[in-house]
Structure formats: C-alpha cells, structure tokens
C-alpha cells in the first residue's frame, strides 16, 4: 500500500479544505459579529498540517491501487470531518463540547442535517454560514466520489450504471478522465446552486438566507439558519422552490450531464432511465398517501395547506433532506413512520441524496419477483432486466450483499444506542436518520440531537459515515484481508 502517496493526498485535501475557512471569516467581517477569529486560526492550523503531510512526501506519486483508493475515500470524510469540528470547538458561542463539535461537523459534511444546536436564530452569521457551507462542500464531494471515483474502484451505486447498464448514462459518454468528469459535475452543481439561490432571493429571502439555503438544498443536507427551518418563512413559493430543487438534486447527476451535454435540455434522457421513472413513481405515491391522510384527519384548515405540507414533507423526508415546515412528527403516526421508512430508499444513485438508492431497491424488487416466479416454475430461466438489458448475476449478488450489510449495520447501531439508554423508538429513528443521512427522527430526536448522551452521539457519527460511504467502503477497512500485503 502506498502510504506516503496517501499521506501526500491527505495533506493536499487539508490544505484545500483550509481555504474554505476564509469564507465564513469574511462573513464575520461583513456582519461584524466577532466570530471570525476561530476560522482564521483554523485556516492557519489546517494549512500547516496539510504542509507537514505534503512536503516530505511531495515526490511520491506512485500509481494508486484499489486498496489505496478505498483508504483515501474513507480518510476524505474522517479527516475533513474532524478538521471541520475545530471552528465549533474554538468558538465561544454556541460553546459546543468536543462531542457536539464533532457531531455537528460530521452531520454537515455527510449532509445528514442532524443538529445538536438549539437557538440558531441567535447564532453569529459566520457560524450559520459555515454550517451551510460544510453541507455544500460535502454534497459536491459525494457527487465526485459517486460518479468519478467510486466506479473506478468498483464500488457504489454508479457502478451499476456505468459498468453494467446500457442506457442514457452510458450513451452520454461521460468524459473519460476523472478530472474532466469532476469539472463537468462542478459546473452542474454550481449552476444549480446559483439558480436555487436566485429563486429563493426572488421569493423573498434575504441574500444571506438565500445563499445558505441553496447550499443545503442542492446538497440535500437540510441545515437551516433558523430553528423553524423552512417553516420560518411561511411561504408557499419558497416551499415549492425547495421541492423543485430537491427533486432535481435527488436525480442522478450523470443524467443531468447527459441532458445538457449537447447544449440544450433533452427530457428523453430522463424518461428513458428506469431509475428516474421509479423515483418519481415513489414520490407521487408517497405524496398521494400523505395528502389523503391529512385530508381524512382534517389536520389543516384548507385543502391547499394540506397539499402544500404533504408535498413539501414528502419530498423533503423521502429525498433525505430533512427540511421541515411543520412538526410532521405530530401528524397521524402512520405518516411520520411511512416517511421515515421512505428515507431508506432515498435518492437516485449518483445524487446528493442518502438512503440505499432507488436503483438498488428497484433491483431488489425485481429479484424478489423473480424468486416468486421460480417457486411456481422451478425449471424456468428468468433474467432481471433494467432498461431492456439483462443484468449479470454478479450485479444482483452485489446488491443483495449491500442490503445484508446495510441491515447488519443498522441493527448493530440500533442495539448500541439502546445500550446507551435511548428508548426503542428514538434509537430506531436516530439510526434511520443518520444511516440514511436524513436528519430529523422521532421521539427524543424529533427536533434535535442535543439532549441525547455523548456515547450515543459517537455511535451516530459512525452511522453517518457508514451511510455516506455506502457501507462497504468503510466496512472493508475493518477486515484483516484489506491490510495484508
């Protein structure tokens, strides 16, 4: 394993990450909130650490193997997540403990959106901006890893698209070099962020709130600059803008690339994709169920309010954003539980959404249907097809392996939370909220995670990492085989 090359890359990552500290420092200067010093100190400290890692190893540029790639991907999130905790630790307000600082940082960078901070309305602008920026930075990291890096390592949901499934993504001929692919995705991601910020501003947000919420919306993170989240604005227009951009961001970014590659929007690329069709079918079904249930229970005074709240909460929770406009945990119990389970599906592969991804759920459904047919006709040969093309058994086995590992990690984390003293409902929803990178849960974690004990928070940090790294990437580092030369 090329350890010195890996250390060199980690040093470059730290140096690059240190530059992001200058943005909230500038915000502190503009708003004169006195919160800029922690970010300046963090900038110099991370820059120094990056130089210490990079300089002695600057000439080590050996070709990285698959194992090296796995380790770099894990270090990307763990090292930067830990480094991101420094401004929270150094800031006198809100005065977070070490555990809470790490929790907030990892929650932001993994775009989970679970917070331990109460009183966001009174926080310095620099801290608020930093939380939103971390989510945006993490969201872009997800896209580049999922679409440009993980397929080369042979892992991740995008492998199904780019290696196994002919169709619009493969036909679009994503640029062959990682650097070019990452650059193209940056342009798409940045363009969507700018469009979202402008839409929020035109709908009535201040420029600060518009930029901050565009960061967390495009990253499908869910952090807000207010305790009441999007509900603070009490605006139908802002709710609808959020829904539209969440749906766009929950789609495969390779589809966006294909649709815009020829200089114009081509909806056929989207509709030809089976995962895209399945994603919107799930969204429509969830919305219909929530809307009808809210009408049945007379939860809101008007049909329009019921429509608005049902649409917003359905999209927000099922895409794993976690924005709220109302206490959805106060809805008829069936609906919060239904939406919590929908977060296990999450967004499409190659999106900023969390969960197991729609393509895997689609393949698991097709595999289940095939087994039912085999029970009736044991000697018949059935193949699983996506987009008209048959999938190899290796892909099906990989999806089953992922589902098994996902279930195992979920159960272990839930049992660990119960062992720390959490009740069953809070433990179940907390793991679902962090493993699916969702944010809000039920029970003790329905509003925030500040009241749970420190050991439980560390378990949930690990759960966030497992969810963001799609289980196997982190799990493989725990096997003895990985470390054998």
Helices and strands in order, then pairings?
Blueprint: H1 3-19, H2 22-31, H3 37-54, H4 66-83, H5 86-90, H6 98-109, H7 125-153, H8 158-164, H9 168-171, H10 178-202, H11 207-218, H12 236-249, H13 253-260, H14 267-271, H15 274-296, H16 303-318, H17 334-342, H18 358-376, E1 385-386, E2 389-390, H19 393-420, H20 424-435, H21 454-468, H22 472-475, H23 480-483
Antiparallel strand pairs: 1-2
Helix pairs in contact: 1-3, 1-4, 2-7, 4-6, 4-7, 6-7, 6-21, 7-8, 7-10, 7-11, 10-11, 10-12, 12-16, 15-16, 15-17, 16-17, 18-19, 19-20, 19-21, 20-21
Keywords: Cell inner membrane, Cell membrane, Ion transport, Membrane, Metal-binding, Potassium, Potassium transport, Transmembrane, Transmembrane helix, Transport
Binding site for K(+): 111-112, 220-221, 320-321, 437-438
Subcellular location: Cell inner membrane
Give a written overview of the molecule:
InterPro entries: Cat_transpt, TrkH. The chain crosses the membrane at residues 12-31, 37-57, 69-90, 133-153, 184-203, 236-255, 276-295, 333-353, 398-419, 458-483. It is a single chain. This protein is mostly helical and 485 residues long. The protein is 65% helix and 1% strand. A hairpin with a 2-residue loop joins strand 1 (385-386) and strand 2 (389-390). The chain is globular. The N and C termini lie close together (7 Å).
